[in-house]
Design goal:
By secondary structure, this protein is mainly alpha-helical. It folds into 2 domains: 1-52, no CATH class; 53-100. 53% of the residues lie in helices and 8% in strands. The chain has a two-stranded antiparallel ribbon with strand order 1-2. A hairpin with a 3-residue loop joins strand 1 and strand 2. The radius of gyration is 18 Å and the shape is elongated. Zinc ion binds at residues 17, 19-20, 22, 36-37, 39-40. Zinc ion is lined by residues 17, 19-20, 22, 36-37, 39-40.
Amino acid sequence: MRIQYPRPEEAPPAKPCFNCGDLASAMWSGRQDVYVCGECAVAILPKLIADAVPTKGDGGTQTFRDHLTEIHAGYWYAVACRLSGTICELQKWIDNQSSE
Ligand SMILES: [Zn+2]
């Protein structure tokens, strides 16, 4: 029997990626909702970050290194949140299966 994993409740609605128009796999809410697919998240978002971070008078070299440390921490924090959410959803699904 193949296990059908549940779709996370907080999964983004089916919307197109802001960059390529393919189906987005994630959404970020700010003043506007931004939808992005996995491919563009990897290919485009790091470039957007590099363009957006403010630099100091050193041409940006040290500033970019400083931001990279912060970006790494934020990335791994988000990964942990995503994995813990997935684990919670799987546990709910397993609990529902065993109670039926
Ligand atoms: Zn895309």
